[in-house]
Amino acid sequence: MTSWHKYKDFQVNPRWIGCWLQADKLTTAEAERELLNCKWGVVGFLRDLRQLQQEHEKLIVRELQKAYAKEVASRDKPFRKVEEVEKWRKQYAVKERRYKMLILDGDSMYGKTSFAVALWGEESTFVVDCTGGKEPDLRDYRPLVHKCVVMDEMSLSAITTQHKKLMQAPHVPVTMGATKSQMYAYHVFLAGTAIIVTTNKYDAEFRYLDEDDKKWLYQNSVYYWVDDYLYERDAGSPEDSDPLPPGRWV
């Protein structure tokens, strides 16, 4: 014990506060208060402290996401083997200049996206939300980790007018985010990466494409109409009573 009072009878080095925080003798809130009282090196140390708080929160959220996903996955039913899809997968056994994408088309709730992710596994699959014609953001795609990219709800017009090269997973890098200034441009190397598109608007969009784009889609994709649940079901399960979607228009 001492009768000396910190900040009045002796100076406090802000590094000491960091040491106390590291030793779990202070909470981040207490450390912030001590730094403000210290009045020395406040800007830099507070910036580091708040960055620490943010990263710690991100870590907690990631752990929650993993735990949530694990619990949900424990109740998942196995997916069916689809002959057409298995045949499409065989193209990746050989290194090529380009590949055909897979298009899974059908009503919602039939497990299209989950089925696509399961083909190579969650850890090896990068899912991109393309709803509403959004530009696919592939900045976090990692070619040494991801073996498959799922373009969720990607429109046919976006494929045929903007991303033909991207959707072929070519053997050369593809430029994304290009503008006149190229300020936000970046490159992705997708060679040999499986590309899967999930949609429920194929027919509605296909009819409005010009003939050249229709021909390009036929030549560069494998289309599969999902008219039933893609996961295995037990006899008499509630899904058996659900109506199936109308058949694909001809």
Short description:
This protein is α/β, with parallel strands linked by helices and 250 residues long. 38% of the residues lie in helices and 14% in strands.
Task: Characterize the structure shown.
The chain has helices at residues 14-22, 28-38, 42-73, 83-89, 112-120, 156-162, 164-167, 202-206, 211-220, and strands at residues 101-106, 125-129, 148-152, 174-176, 186-188, 194-199, 221-226. The protein has 250 residues and is α/β, with parallel strands linked by helices. The chain folds into 2 domains: 14-73; 83-241, Rossmann fold (3-Layer(aba) Sandwich). It has a 5-stranded parallel sheet with strand order 2-3-6-1-7. The protein has a two-stranded antiparallel ribbon with strand order 4-5. Helix 1 (14-22) packs antiparallel against helix 2 and helix 2 (28-38) packs antiparallel against helix 3. It is elongated and about 85 Å long. The termini are far apart. Residues 243-250 have low confidence and may be disordered.
